[in-house]
Each structure stands twice: as structure tokens, then as C-alpha cells.
């Protein structure tokens, strides 16, 4: 296995201003901070990019279209970066189909704080580079019949380099200042092939041109030529590696550290959000002014909402129209089957947070398959998303009035998001709109402000609405345990059931049935779940429990102050406190660990160390549970069942609290569901914790396996509302899902929606089958996202192994995998990875070869299909060629 990426590779993902700031004094970059300096800026925007994206999508399909678009961008931007660097400039931001480039002036502030000579020098350099760019890149061929051109605008003046955020150790960098407004307006006034300078930039150069409008000028030529001097970056010590990663998205940082930088690009289903703050962002300045603290409050509120739903910030840009933040739900390593639902809820909560801060906003939300990967070259690049969903979300954010009535969110969603989230969120169906770059009108949908009964905090758990038709033995066992609990005949500390099974195998359905039975028996139940980012948030698995105990859904859409009052007035008083919860109020700032509250630290909590804070939170939450349950009738020692899903994602603090509650609250039953745990887990749940659960007294361990054919097909028929599937439909569902209940039900519904149910009987008589394209169209995003959410939890080496395996055929050996694997991998390491993937139910051993080598295969064809569809065409070809096979998918840069 190759080692982590070099420091030079990490540096290529960060703006030069960040690298230079870290080299001088990293304390200056601690958010919130800003540093003002004179500079020239250049903005280049590719002409008719949206139209090109639509044409490629129609001609080649959305997946290959997105990949081709990214390929063209890489070619064009790569040459652009080389020219800018040679002329002494620095590429600061990639804004989709545009680039922001900077020439900072090197000067020492004097008594007059003037830098006229320095500004004149850098503006001349920027203008000279702009002419060179148009000479070299106007009508630049990136493929047969595809030529790209751009519009270029130049501005000059004083800028501020601003560092904001800090949530989960993520820092966002942006530029602020009037030159950004200048360059954006200059670019708008030009046409492809032209260079437009702002009046301020024109003041500093000596050249010939002609008026454009509003005092802006077309630049035709410069009167003098200055030999270009390439920009140089300082050398960073290796100790800066961790600090540098604060500016690099987790999606790419994890792959860089795993030595997989060349495999960071993927095709993924993502819900994209464009959050636009009009008229804001070009005046953020020094800390002694109010603009910087205000910007920090805005950024932290947006980060908190987004990270709570496990989304990712992809871009943060400023232009003359304001700030635009681009976010994604479904970027690695945090894909979820409900990313469209999460995306809409993020939009609603973000807009509510911004309104509380007095900032109007417009938000566009779109869902689709996009290219996710690096754009640029080895000198400068960014991890970005490219595809129809990106373009559509951007345009939707542009067509909304930000000053709508309070009960009408300034949020628009596309049809794919509406179809995926409409069963949980109410939408208003609006009249279709025409957007830039599209010939046809686009259907649009607006989520209703109070459409959500409760936030996805931390997980989406819908109660089971129908009777569980399988798992009869498991239900019988659990039913007997519940009866013992109800009769209080359970021995102390013998109250744990551990349910183990792969994703979608039916753990959540079984938990839902257990909850239903407990309610029918008058047993009080509380639910929680482990979180993918739980290792960064102690006690995260208990968030849903306290959400329910404090009736927080009633305060969901309230202000932060109202939410705080809602919780504080419910705090219970302890013995001897005469009804006043003095101790609970003293500890109340610790509630922010499990509830989305804004409670400032007090004189007690401020001085706690991290270890002391965790210990105090543990004791406080345990005491709260005891008092709140006592208030609900525990004086009669009523039984309670705690139901936790995704225990494989538990953090250590959540597990310790679980053991403490299990011992303190009797009679009780704990039902825990987990996926299989490999020896090397990407998440914080370690095998020793799993073994500790198994060693608990009288633990019942239920291993869920795929269903028998009769049960699996019966469940699929019930999902369709019919009593029995036709033989042809049943055969195809069984072939692709092999008894996996979740995949079988989803595939049945998808085949119905795609019209294949009526097609299959005819194919059966003709001894035919659906084409691959027909079957692919029948697999909805929900299936892909369900599978992808499990793949994202894998160590990257195992994920890469699955990508390698999916192009090798129906079966493969460890030797074939090790040979085709694109990075160094020994046979022993390969065998270990394969066995762990068998444990996790991604693969299965079939027969052995004549030489005695075990043969492996994907356990479910749909998993293989999902993994394969993530690969780019040239990645598939590379893997196939490494096995001396010819790729069966033609692909070339001249497509």
C-alpha cells in the first residue's frame, strides 16, 4: 500500500494565501480573522458552460456527460493555471465553471498606508496575463467539436483574506473587498475572448482600449511588456500537515492520506445546495469592525446545521451579488439513503438560522449523479462537483425572491429532490420556470416551512406501519423477553439483546416491531442511534433519547431563545431542592452535547477540562434520565425498553453511558442493532467494544441472514400491494437480491415505476430479459444510496478492493485482485481484506480453483452494479488493462 500523499500534494489543494499565512504565523489564521492588503484580481468564466453541460448530458447520458465535462474542465483549467502561475498569479478559488485569480502586492505599510506603486505593478501583471490567457485559450480545443472560450474581468484595490468557521476543526477561507465586485461586473460586460478592466484597474495600467459601459474599458493591448515572473510558495515543515488539512475537504483528505489521490474522483448521487446571501460578503474586514464577528456568526451557524446532518461544504465564493456557499449531502465518506430529505431539512434550518441573524437568503436544492473529484492540475486544484444537479441548484437559487413572506421559504427544489423527499416533507408545486442554459422549462417545488414534524437529529427513524411478515423465530424470542420484562421477572443485568446483520437486512424493521409490541404491552420505549461522526461528538447516540424526553419537536421551528426556555423549564429538581432544579441549571450547558441548544457556559462549566467535562456530562445525563423517567411514572417502577440502532457507530462516551443506564434503571431491556464489525473499522467502534457487549451476562445474540426465497418474494409483493409476483418478476428480483429484504422491496417498486413489470412476461415467453440500460433505469437512487452508505463506512483499502473486483468478472481470486489492484498490495494483505469483506457480507466465497485458491464473488449483484457505476470510464479501463484485458467500455477524450 502506498503511503500518504506528499506535503506538496496537500499544498496544491490550499490557496497560496493560506500556505503563506501558515508559513509566517499560523495564529493569524485562527478564525475569525482577516488581513487587508492591496491586490489585483482576475475573474475568468467559461462561456455557455451550462449549455455545454446540457448538450453532453443529452448526447452521452448524465453520467458520461458529467465525466466528460470534468475532463474538459481539467484540460482547460490545467492550461489556465500554468499560464497564471507563469505570470506571477495565484488561483484562489474554483467557482464551478469559473476561476478567481489573485496578484497580491508585496509592500510594507507606511504612515500613509499607501501602495500605489505596488498596485500599479500587480495590476499590470494581471492585465498582461489576461491578454495572454485570451490569446492562448480563446476557442481552445478540448475535444473534437468542443472548443472552450472565456470572458475575463480585472479589478484592483484593497482586499481582505478572511478565515471563518472552526466547527469540527474546519476553516473556511474567502476573499472580501470591492475588487471582487469590480472583476465580476467587468466579466459580465465582456464577451468571449475579451478582457474588461474596471475603472480602478484601468487607472493603474498603461494601455490602449475602448469604452465598454459604466466607466469599464475593453483592453486591447498594453504599452509595455514586463517579463513574467512565476509566483513562489514558501516551504512548509511537515508539522504543518494537520493544520493544512483544516482547509481541505474530508472527501479528498482521507484519500490523500490513504495514498489514493489518483482515485479520488467518483460518480456519486449527491443532493446539492446553493445557499446565496445577496448583497453580503464584499465588506468583511478587520476584527475591530462588526463585519467580521457577524460573518463568523453566519458561518458557524451554517456549519453547525450542515455538519449535524453530515453534509459537506464544497465551495465558498464571493462576487458582486454576495456570498454563495455550495454544500453537498452524499459526499464521501457520508452517503445516506435519505440524503434528499436531509438536504431539504438543511435548507429549512439554514434559512431559519440566517433569518435569526438578519440575513436574507435564497437556496436551490437539486439531486442527481455528479462527478466528484479534483479539478485543476498538480500546481493548484480543488475537490469539486460537476454535473446537471450542480448547474440546476445554482440556477434555482438565482430565480427566487429573497424577501418572500415569512411563511414562504425562499427555497426551490428540483423534481428529483421532490420525488425522493415528498413522502416525508410537504411541498408546494409551483409553475415551471425557464432558467439560463436550458431550452425547456424546469418543474420546481417549494418545501413548506412547517412541513417537518421534527428534525433529522440525529437520524431518521420512521415507525413501522405494517406487520413484520418474516423473522418469526426472532420475534418469538424477543416477545418472550418483553413478557418477562412486563412481569418484572427479569434478573438484574440480564437485559441485553444484540441484533447483528448487514445494511438493509431488516434490523430496523425488527426494531420497529419490537417497539410496536412494547407499546401494546404498555412498556415505555426510548430510541437512539450511533452516528457516523460520533467519535467527534461524545454521547451522540443519546441525542434522540433526550430529544424525545424533552419534547423538543414542539420547539423545532422556534428561535434559539425559545428552544432554550422550552428545555430549561422542564429540568427536574432533585431530592431536597424543593422544586427548584438548582443543580440541573448549573449543569445545563452540558445539554448542548445531546440537544441543538445555545446555552452559554457558566462559572462551573467554563473551567472544566475535556476529561472533566465528559465525566460531568456522563453523571448529569444519567441523573437526568433517572429523574425524567421518575417523573413519567417510575415511582411505580414501570418497565422501559431502550432501542438503539447502528451500535457499530457508537462513540466510547455513548457506550459507557449505556452500561451505566443499564445498571441503574431497572426493570429495563436494551435492544441493540449493529452491522458486522470487521477487525479494522473506519469508524470509532472497535472490535474490543463489540466483544465487551457479547460478554455481557445473558446476552441474546440474533444473527439476521437473508430471507428464504418465499419470504423475500412475499415481502416484495406486499411492497407492490399485490398478493403474488409473476414468475418472471420473481426470478429477476431473486437473481439480483438473493433474499435481501430491503433490496428486494426497493427493486420491486423500481421495476414497477420503470414499467418493467408489464415487459417481463413478454420477455419470458421470448426467452429474453431486460437490457442492462432498462435494469439500470429501474434501480432508484434510494437503492444506490443505501448501498453507498455502507461502502462509505469501509476502510479505503477495502473500498478500493471492491472497485477493483467489480471489473474482473463474476468470480475472482485473491491473486487476480492483487494483480489488478492499482496500488501496492501484498497477497497476504489482499487475503485479509477479502475475508473482512466476506464478514461484512459484501463478498462471499464460492468454490475453489483447481489450484485450491478460493474464488470470491459479490454477494448481491446490485452491490457490484453500484460500485461499478461509481467508477469513471478511464478508471474501469485502467483496472481492466492491468489484468491484460481489453476494456468493454469505449472511452476517449474525443468523444
Characteristic key phrases:
eight-stranded mixed sheet, 895 residues, Alpha-Beta Plaits, 4 domains, alpha+beta, disordered C terminus, Rossmann fold, six-stranded mixed sheet
What does this protein structure show overall?
The protein is built from 32 helices and 26 strands. The strands form 6 sheets. Strands 1, 2, 3, 6, 7, 8, 9 and 10 form an 8-stranded mixed β-sheet that branches. Strands 11, 12, 13, 14, 15 and 16 form a 6-stranded mixed β-sheet that branches. A 5-stranded parallel β-sheet has the order 20-21-22-19-23. A hairpin with a 5-residue loop joins β6 and β7. The two termini are 34 Å apart.
Give the topology.
Layout: H1 7-12, H2 16-25, E1 33-46, H3 49-60, H4 62-86, E2 90-94, E3 98-104, H5 116-137, E4 140-143, E5 146-148, E6 150-165, E7 171-176, H6 178-189, E8 195-197, H7 199-203, E9 207-211, E10 217-222, H8 241-245, H9 250-257, E11 266-278, H10 291-308, E12 312-319, E13 322-329, H11 339-356, E14 362-376, E15 381-386, H12 388-398, E16 411-413, H13 415-421, E17 427-433, E18 442-447, H14 472-486, E19 496-500, H15 507-520, E20 524-529, H16 543-549, H17 560-568, H18 582-587, H19 610-631, E21 640-645, H20 652-664, E22 668-674, H21 687-694, E23 700-703, H22 709-720, H23 727-737, H24 741-753, H25 756-765, H26 772-777, H27 781-791, H28 796-805, E24 812-813, H29 814-820, H30 827-839, E25 843-848, E26 854-858, H31 861-870, H32 873-882
Parallel strand pairs: 6-8, 14-16, 19-22, 19-23, 20-21, 21-22
Antiparallel strand pairs: 1-3, 1-6, 2-3, 4-5, 6-7, 8-10, 9-10, 11-13, 11-14, 12-13, 14-15, 17-18, 24-26, 25-26
Helix pairs in contact: 3-4, 4-5, 10-11, 14-15, 19-20, 22-24, 23-24, 27-31, 29-30
Amino acid at each position: 500500500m502506498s503511503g500518504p500523499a506528499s506535503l506538496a500534494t496537500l499544498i496544491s489543494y490550499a490557496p497560496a494565501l493560506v500556505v503563506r499565512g501558515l508559513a509566517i504565523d499560523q495564529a493569524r489564521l485562527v478564525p475569525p480573522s482577516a488581513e487587508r492588503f492591496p491586490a489585483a484580481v482576475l475573474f475568468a468564466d467559461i462561456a455557455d458552460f451550462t449549455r455545454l453541460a446540457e448538450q453532453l448530458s443529452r448526447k452521452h447520458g448524465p453520467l458520461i456527460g458529467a465525466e466528460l465535462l470534468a475532463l474538459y474542465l481539467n484540460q482547460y483549467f490545467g492550461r489556465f493555471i500554468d499560464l497564471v502561475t507563469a505570470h506571477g498569479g495565484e488561483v484562489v478559488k474554483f467557482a464551478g465553471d469559473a476561476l478567481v485569480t489573485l496578484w497580491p502586492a508585496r509592500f510594507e505599510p507606511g504612515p500613509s498606508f499607501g501602495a500605489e506603486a505596488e498596485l500599479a505593478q500587480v495590476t499590470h501583471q494581471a492585465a498582461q496575463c489576461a491578454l495572454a490567457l485570451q490569446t492562448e485559450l480563446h476557442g481552445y480545443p478540448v475535444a473534437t467539436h468542443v472548443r472552450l472560450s472565456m470572458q475575463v474581468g480585472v479589478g484592483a484595490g484593497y482586499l481582505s483574506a478572511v478565515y471563518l468557521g472552526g466547527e469540527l476543526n474546519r476553516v473556511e477561507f474567502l476573499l472580501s473587498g470591492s475588487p471582487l465586485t469590480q472583476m465580476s461586473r467587468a466579466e459580465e460586460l465582456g464577451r468571449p475572448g475579451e478582457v474588461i478592466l474596471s475603472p480602478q484597474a484601468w487607472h493603474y495600467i498603461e494601455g490602449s482600449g475602448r469604452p465598454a459601459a459604466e466607466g469599464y474599458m475593453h483592453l486591447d493591448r498594453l504599452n509595455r511588456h514586463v517579463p513574467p515572473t512565476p509566483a513562489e510558495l514558501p516551504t512548509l515543515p511537515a508539522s504543518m500537515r494537520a493544520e493544512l488539512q483544516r482547509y481541505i475537504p474530508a472527501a479528498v483528505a482521507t484519500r490523500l492520506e490513504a495514498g489514493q489521490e489518483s482515485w479520488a474522483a467518483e460518480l456519486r448521487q449527491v443532493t446539492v445546495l446553493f445557499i446565496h446571501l445577496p448583497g453580503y460578503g464584499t465588506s468583511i474586514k478587520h476584527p475591530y469592525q462588526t463585519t467580521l464577528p457577524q460573518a463568523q456568526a453566519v458561518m458557524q451557524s451554517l456549519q453547525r446545521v450542515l455538519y449535524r446532518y453530515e453534509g459537506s461544504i464544497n465551495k465558498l465564493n464571493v462576487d458582486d451579488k454576495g456570498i454563495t456557499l455550495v454544500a453537498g449531502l452524499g459526499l464521501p465518506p457520508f452517503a445516506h439513503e435519505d440524503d434528499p430529505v436531509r438536504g431539504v431539512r438543511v435548507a429549512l434550518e439554514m434559512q431559519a438560522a440566517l433569518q435569526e441573524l438578519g440575513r436574507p437568503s435564497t437556496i436551490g436544492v437539486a439531486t442527481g449523479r455528479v462527478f466528484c473529484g479534483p479539478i485543476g492540475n498538480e500546481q493548484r486544484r480543488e475537490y469539486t462537483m460537476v454535473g446537471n444537479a450542480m448547474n440546476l441548484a445554482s440556477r434555482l437559487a438565482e430565480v427566487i425572491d429573497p424577501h418572500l413572506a415569512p411563511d414562504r421559504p425562499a427555497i426551490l427544489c428540483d423534481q428529483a429532490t421532490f420525488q425522493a423527499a415528498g413522502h416525508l416533507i410537504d411541498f408546494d408545486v409551483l409553475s415551471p420556470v425557464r432558467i439560463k442554459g436550458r431550452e425547456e422549462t424546469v418543474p420546481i417545488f417549494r418545501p413548506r416551512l412547517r412541513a417537518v414534524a421534527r428534525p433529522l437529529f440525529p437520524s431518521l427513524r420512521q415507525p413501522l406501519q405494517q406487520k413484520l411478515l418474516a423473522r418469526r423465530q426472532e420475534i418469538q424470542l424477543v416477545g418472550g423477553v418483553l413478557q418477562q420484562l412486563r412481569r418484572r421477572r427479569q434478573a438484574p443485568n440480564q437485559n441485553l439483546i444484540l441484533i447483528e446483520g448487514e445494511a438493509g437486512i431488516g434490523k430496523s424493521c425488527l426494531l420497529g416491531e419490537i417497539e410496536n409490541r412494547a407499546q401494546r404491552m404498555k412498556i415505555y420505549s426510548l430510541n437512539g442511534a450511533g452516528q457516523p461522526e460520533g467519535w467527534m461528538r461524545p454521547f451522540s447516540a443519546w441525542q434522540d433519547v433526550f430529544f424525545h424526553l424533552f419534547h423538543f419537536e414542539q420547539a423545532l421551528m422556534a428561535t434559539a431563545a425559545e428552544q432554550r426556555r422550552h428545555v430549561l423549564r422542564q429540568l427536574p429538581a432533585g431530592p431536597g431542592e424543593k422544586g427548584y432544579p438548582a443543580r440541573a441549571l448549573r449543569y445545563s450547558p452540558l445539554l448542548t452535547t445531546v440537544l441543538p441548544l445555545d446555552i452559554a457556559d457558566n462559572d462551573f462549566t467554563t473551567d472544566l477540562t475535556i476529561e472533566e467535562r465528559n465525566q460531568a456530562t456522563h453523571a448529569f445525563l444519567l441523573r437526568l434520565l433517572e429523574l425524567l423517567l421518575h417523573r413519567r411514572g417510575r415511582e411505580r417502577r414501570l418497565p422501559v425498553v431502550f432501542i438503539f440502532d447502528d451500535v457499530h457507530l457508537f462513540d466510547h462516551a455513548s457506550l459507557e453511558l449505556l452500561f451505566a443506564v443499564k445498571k441503574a434503571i431497572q426493570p429495563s431491556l436494551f435492544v441493540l442493532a449493529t452491522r458486522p464489525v470487521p477487525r479494522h473499522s473506519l469508524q470509532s467502534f472497535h472490535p474490543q467494544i463489540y466483544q465487551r457487549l457479547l460478554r455481557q451476562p445473558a446476552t441474546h445474540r440474533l444473527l439476521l441472514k437473508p430471507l428464504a426465497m418465499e419470504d423475500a418474494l412475499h415481502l416484495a409483493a406486499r411492497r407492490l400491494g399485490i398478493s403474488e409476483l409473476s414468475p418472471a418478476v420473481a426470478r429477476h428480483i431473486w437473481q439480483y437480491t438473493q433474499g435481501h429484504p430491503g433490496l428486494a422491496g426497493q427493486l420491486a417498486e423500481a421495476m414497477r415505476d420503470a414499467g418493467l413489470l408489464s415487459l417481463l412476461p413478454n420477455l419470458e415467453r421470448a426467452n429474453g430479459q431486460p437490457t442492462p440500460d432498462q435494469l439500470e433505469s429501474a434501480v432508484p437512487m434510494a437503492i444506490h444510496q443505501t448501498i453507498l452508505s455502507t461502502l462509505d463506512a469501509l476502510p479505503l483499502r477495502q473500498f478500493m478492493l471492491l472497485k477493483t473486483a467489480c471489473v474482473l468478472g463474476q468470480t475472482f481470486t485473491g491473486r487476480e485482485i492483487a494483480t489488478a489492484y492499482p496500488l501496492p498490495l501484498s497477497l497476504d494483505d489482499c487475503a485479509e481484506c477479502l475475508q473482512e469483506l466476506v464478514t461484512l457480507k459484501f463478498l462471499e466465497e464460492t468454490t475453489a480453483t483447481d489450484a485450491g485458491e478460493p474464488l470470491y464473488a459479490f454477494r448481491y449483484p446490485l452491490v457490484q452494479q453500484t460500485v461499478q457505476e461509481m467508477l469513471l470510464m478511464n478508471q474501469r479501463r485502467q483496472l481492466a488493462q492491468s489484468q491484460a484485458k481489453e476494456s468493454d467500455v469505449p472511452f476517449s477524450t474525443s468523444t
